[in-house]
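Convert to structure. Protein one:
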Amino acid sequence: MQREPDRPLAEAEESPPIVAWRARHVLPVVLAAGVALVVLALVAGRAGSNSVDLGATLWLQSFQQAAFAALMAAVSWPGFFPQNWIVPVLLAVALASLRLWPEALWLLGTQAATLATQVVKDVVHRQRPSPELVRVAAPLTDPSFPSGHVVQYTVILGFLFFLVYVLMRRSARRTATLVLLAVPIVLVGPSRLYLGQHWLSDALGGYAMAALLLAPYCWAYTTWRLSRTRQRVGPTPAPRPYA
């Protein structure tokens, strides 16, 4: 007995075996990346700023083109208050409008990463880059490590990336959506350095923390979804290799 499509995107979704196969192969990659970035962040940030941190910021800030500066500022803007709380709600509303109610709630759950980030910031209590060393667009007073922007972007958009990757069938639409989600994740780290509000090791630490939070979160979502599918349609066949 096949499940009847009950959502607008049902015809674009992959079958449960493909979802399971993709999740089981992508999550170890995410986890490995997180562990590697943790090591890099610890090495880079052992004692305040260092030559690598300073050199990376000064190199980025050497690009003085107005368009590049505007891009860096625009990339960081959604991560400041109150946008950093409004944007996730808008994304969840967008999912809910497609009748993806559980996914909308799971997306809102990623906001717990913001609270976890604040705990780490308070424990590490690293100072922000100094205006005497680099150009600071606007001084911030909270601790620097890890970058909250990087954590939030990577967890929220990374979870959406995961949903699209494992659930949607291969198509030009899927590819375009994945690229659209990946671009802000890639750019937010450099933007924090360019604005002089974080060091390279802060950004790496943000990516590391996000990856380590995202891997078990995505696995929990996948487990819940496949369990829900089995309850509705019965056991699914063993997964086979799919892209």
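Protein two, convert as well:
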Amino acid sequence: MKSQNKSLMRRICVLTGIALVVVALGLFAFWQCGLTSSQQQAENYVNTIKALIPEPVGTLPEARKNNTMPTLSIDGTDFVGVLEIPRYESSLPVCADWGDISKYPCHFSGSVYDRTLQIGATSQRGQYDFYREISVGDTVFFTDMEGNRYTYSVTNIRHEDNADQTALRREDSALTLFVKNTYGFDYIIIYCNVAG
């Protein structure tokens, strides 16, 4: 009787273990599929934005009477621009509303026109997945919805405990990108200044 109980328990444990592995593999596949879908959707939004705005023209940021960045609404989501980092073949739509941070990079604070723009994102594939490789000197482009294309150069990269305004704002940074490090508890903050 004891040997039958042990045998039955062994079978139950093995079957439970197999079931858990199958569920884990299914969840992983579902997660990967979602990431690929988000990346593809981001590419589609970039292509749509580029088709709808004027042909990009290089310019320098200058303060306006109204520094509010114009938006373009696509499928119910408002975008303020396209962020490009050619070295990593990264071209990303930038949402106007901070609440969409889980899907695409988002405008956090400031404006491109008065050189205070801050954009946050996650490190998932299709967003700031370049954050571990980016280096000082890399070129960054931001194109607004009027077709103005601004060129920046990465000047500094820091690791901070948080991404509050004290950490994000620097006088010598016209564009600040930041991301939560998924492999640690810190934020990677990428400071960029106007190139040229």
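The beta strands are 57-58, 72-74, 77-85, 90-95, 106-109, 117-121, 139-144, 148-160, 175-180, 187-194. The chain has a mean pLDDT of 83.
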